[in-house]
Amino acid sequence: MAEQEVKKVEAVMPVAPTPVETKSDVAEGKVTAPSPPVAAEKEKAATATEESKALAIVQKTEPAPKKVSGGSIDRVIALADLEKEKRLSFIKAWEDSEKTKAENRSQKKLYVVAAWENSKKAALEAKLRNIEEK
Questions:
Q1: Among the listed residues 73, 74, 10, 78, the one whose alpha carbon sits nearest the alpha carbon of residue 41
Q2: 92, 98 Cβ separation under 8 angstroms
């Protein structure tokens, strides 16, 4: 027995344009037949297009650079941007200097505490040596 291949064939029904009611049809009372269900036709069309999808090439476009027209408004905007950057750099420098000052103060206090601890330890060790010698 020879094997037979079963081929799946789908018939795509063209979508008929829906009849348009004009004012005269409405005035005369003509009734038009409702169009067939659109969802079923769209589903059939979607399955047909899924089988024959093609990849589209998407090209990335970069935004256009700012145009410099040389007008006074552009100059004012550029100067304002420059002033803003300058102000922000001063703020950042001030923050960095304040952080450095705070770190230096804390290190100094830690050294003072460590020195006090070492002096107390040395004094106690000296006292213990005196007690052991006697």
A1: 10
A2: no
Q: Which residue has the tokens 């804390």?
A: 106
Report field, pTM of the whole predicted structure over 0.90: no
Model pLDDT for residues 117-134, shown as the tens digit of each residue: 999 999 999 999 999 987
CA 69 – CA 115 distance, rounded (Å): 67
- What spatial distance separates the first Cα and last Cα of the chain, rounded to whole Å? 119
**Integer Cα distance of 99 and 32 in angstroms:** 81
Scan for tokens 């005269």, then name that residue. Answer: 24
DSSP one-letter code for 29:
T
Measured distance CA(45)–CA(10) in Å, rounded = 10
Q: Quick one: how far is CA 54 from the chain centroid?
A: 29
